[in-house]
């Protein structure tokens, strides 16, 4: 068989979680919460399972969930997505991203991707015959070089993929970045695919600015979100895609043949849970405290801590401590120290040596302190 993805192996998340398991290491690698979702949300799932919400949901998703998403998005951004024509419930953000990319990209089209990049974007582009065009950023980057981005645009550029708050760096885009994106995408008629799965995890008083908050951008964007991050339910694989009706109509042509629809009782449960905004607006404070706890506990190791502005990741540079490449160090720390992390080089499409590790702090305080203790002891 001729591989359609000859350069793709098993993802780094699967690899590091397996290594953590093998060596009984604390898993600060793969990004998922160690704690459970709220008992109230569990009871809602139970309620809908028991009240017969167990057959196919409508292809675009359960209407109450689409209505709840329309409302929360309007309140945050002022943009009105119509629940019937503009919102589709997906199997996680992964499906939303894959379908959005498949909807837009034709063979030979170029797609601008900032790297470090989440690992699902590039394979999706390539499966559609597209060509990823990278704007490479150091994982310690402070601001985006928009002149560099512009220099990558050609007459074949069809789309640009953005991610804020960003995985792996924790960078949160400023209003000026979104304005630059708006003028670039208007000038070159680009479709924007915006990965906003960490929309409710921003720190130190920062605001998440969705592409939906700039009407000219919203009109040319697919906004991809996920309840996995917001409600500590990554295993439910429940996400969504917001886009104007003409884009959504094309998106749904693919979504309907990929999965048709996604898990019904969970959609009703999340719809009801979303009616209380405190359920998601409290998330930033929850994770900011964990970030601070972890960073305080590792501050004497000698790592250079990259400010984590959002998401549940802390990046550390160890260039001053070791010459090892990041994959070798992440594996060695897992085996010998008992703490697993993710080598940030895995988020680049080519060899890099930025000597940066990503730690996930979506863990119990006890786990974070224990991991920090092991790292300190190994110093
Ligand atoms: N995008 C980013 C940046 C992510 O970190 C993740 C989850 N790890 C996803 C997309 C995928 O989200 P989901 O689990 O809802 O498919
Ligand atoms: N998004 C998660 C992370 O960045 C992993 C998701 C996955 O394992 N596919 O760690």
Automatic annotation (TrEMBL):
NCBIfam families listed in its UniProt record: PRK09082.1
Q: What cofactor does this one take?
A: pyridoxal 5'-phosphate
Q: Which UniProt keywords apply?
A: Aminotransferase, Pyridoxal phosphate, Transferase
Q: Which Pfam families match?
A: Aminotran_1_2
Q: What is this protein called?
A: Methionine aminotransferase
* Enzyme Commission number, as recorded: 2.6.1.-
The protein's matches in InterPro entries, at most eight in alphabetical order, are given as: Aminotransferase_I/II_large, Kynurenine-oxoglutarate_AT, PyrdxlP-dep_Trfase, PyrdxlP-dep_Trfase_major, PyrdxlP-dep_Trfase_small
GO MF terms here are: transaminase activity
Q: Which CDD domains match?
A: AAT_like
Residue span(s) of domain Aminotransferase class I/classII large: 25-370
């Amino acid at each position: 068989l001729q591989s359609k993805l000859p350069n793709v192996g098993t993802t780094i998340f699967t690899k590091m979680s397996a290594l953590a398991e093998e060596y009984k290491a604390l898993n600060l690698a793969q990004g998922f919460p160690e704690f459970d979702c709220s008992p109230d949300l569990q009871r809602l799932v139970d309620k809908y399972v028991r009240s017969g919400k167990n057959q196919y949901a409508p292809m675009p998703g359960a209407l109450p969930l689409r209505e709840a998403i329309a409302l929360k998005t309007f309140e945050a951004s002022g943009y009105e997505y119509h629940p019937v024509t503009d919102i589709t419930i997906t199997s996680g953000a992964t499906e939303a991203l894959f379908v959005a990319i498949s909807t837009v990209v034709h063979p030979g089209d170029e797609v601008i991707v900032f790297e470090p990049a989440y690992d699902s974007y590039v394979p999706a582009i390539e499966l559609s015959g597209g060509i990823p065009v990278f704007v490479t950023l150091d994982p310690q980057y402070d601001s985006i070089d928009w002149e560099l981005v512009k220099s990558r645009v050609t007459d074949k550029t069809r789309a640009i993929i953005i991610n804020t708050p960003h995985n792996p760096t924790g960078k949160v885009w400023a209003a000026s970045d979104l304005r630059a994106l708006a003028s670039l995408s208007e000038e070159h008629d680009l479709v924007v695919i915006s990965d906003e799965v960490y929309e409710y995890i921003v720190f130190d008083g920062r605001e998440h600015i969705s592409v939906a908050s700039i009407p000219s951008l919203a009109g040319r964007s697919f906004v991809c979100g996920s309840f996995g991050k917001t409600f500590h339910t990554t295993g439910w694989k429940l996400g969504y895609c917001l886009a104007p009706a003409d884009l959504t109509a094309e998106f749904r042509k693919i979504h309907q043949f990929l999965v048709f629809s996604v898990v019904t009782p969970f959609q009703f449960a999340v719809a009801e849970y979303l009616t209380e905004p405190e359920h998601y607006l409290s998330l930033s404070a929850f994770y900011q405290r964990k970030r601070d706890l972890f960073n305080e506990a590792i501050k004497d190791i000698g790592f250079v801590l990259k400010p984590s502005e959002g998401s549940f990741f802390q990046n550390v540079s160890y260039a001053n401590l070791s010459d090892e490449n990041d994959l070798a160090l992440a594996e060695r720390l897992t085996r010998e120290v008992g703490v697993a992390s993710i080598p940030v080089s895995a988020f680049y499409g080519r060899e890099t040596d930025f000597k940066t590790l990503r730690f996930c702090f979506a863990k119990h305080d006890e786990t974070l302190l224990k991991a920090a203790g092991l790292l300190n002891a190994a110093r």
